[in-house]
Amino acid sequence: MSYSRGAPPGGVSLYLPPVTPMVLRIIVVLSAAFAVQVFLELARLGGVVTWLALTPALVVGRLAVWQLATYALLHGGLWHLLMNLLGLYMFGGDVERVVGSRRLLGLFATSVVGGGLAHAVVALAAGSGYVPVLGASGGVLGVVAAFAALFPQRQVFIFPIPVPIRAWVMALVFAAINLYGAVGANRGGGIAFVAHLGGMLFGYLFLLWTVRGGPGGGSRRSRPRFRVLEGRGNDNLFH
Question: How many domains would you assign to the chain?
Fold first, then answer.
């Protein structure tokens, strides 16, 4: 659940994001894919799942390049799936209302593939290329990064922090946690921290190039014909 100020004058309100069309489609696809995954595992057809998960050594050695996308369709359990769906629901709706359904799908897919590429490069360099990775967290965190860029002043609650924080602070907190996990004492730990970081980076870059036309702002034709107003002022970085 996200937290916003300014709906009543000077007040505070809790805000349930809308379930927008593309967010709903992604949720349905991820849920259906998890159901198929569970069925295959119960039917002792886990080898199919293995070829869909991201194993960097297979991407390079067997040219299993599809794994850079299909790993997002798999999850390590129901809790893993639900957390990703919750994050997509919380932040994806507002992003979709700004950039449109097709761009949200492109952002999510770019974040998934970008996160997979980042993980594959680092895993191969570290000699752990045979460890499979699965989950849509990179794609979801790419959406989170886009949300923070579009609505940097939006206030959100992030458990276990007891007070609301700005969206841009939230994005930095997520990035710092994953960076520490990737290079610190908790490196590994069953979580693909590098894929999370790659997803955030590629999600932000996708938004930067499609909304502003690149770091220099691009041409007027490359920019969307809208402005996003939030509360009492404009908190949108891309306008």
Answer: 1
